[in-house]
Amino acid sequence: xxxxxxxxxxxxxxxxxxxxxxxxxxxxxxxxxxxxxxxxxxxxxxxxxxxxxxxxxxxxxxxxxxxxxxxxxxxxxxxxxxxxxxxxxxxxxxxxxxxxxxxxxxxxxxxxxxxxxxxxxxxxxxxxxxxxxxxxxxxxxxxxxxxxxxxxxxxxxxxxxxxxxxxxxxxxxxxxxxxxxxxxxxxxxxxxxxxxxxxxxxxxxxxxxx
Length: 210
Known about the structure:
It is a single chain. This protein is α+β, with helices and mostly antiparallel strands and 210 residues long. It has one domain. The chain is built from seven helices and eight strands; from the N terminus they run αβααβββββααααββ. Helix 1 packs across helix 5 and helix 6 crosses helix 7 (176-183).
């Protein structure tokens, strides 16, 4: 667990000129234009700006100091997607948090999905746990306007919840008070999964059923 501060320091230095693309999506289902042609799946690790920007709806997009933010109207379902870029502008990590008051049959009430390319992120030697810890520290430390901050907090809460649920992990890398605050952003009682792809990317999921 002592590796987390070092990895965080490495990430902070390598991402000092990196952009964070944040998309806060509320009421995705009420936007017919977003249901076809837009999506988390269309954003791929390694994408350049010209590629991943085509996956985002233009309506409601505003640029921030850390990238871009898009917010839609409220509704029974809310989505938050955060895309983080490397210093050369390519997607090195992407996150999605979905919450639904009345999920459809077979769909979870709460779902967190994430994908990370450790090479692009600058932590090529990190294991999946320490890489996720470093991301948590970067996201929760990032100063932003209220809309961006709220969306990042939801993602940070999902990461913290995944870490405390995963077997054998005894620390998120945060102090107890901050960890408890972030955990309120993500419900307990869910299931965490993780896999390493054939290309060496890390994929994480945390879901809570009805």
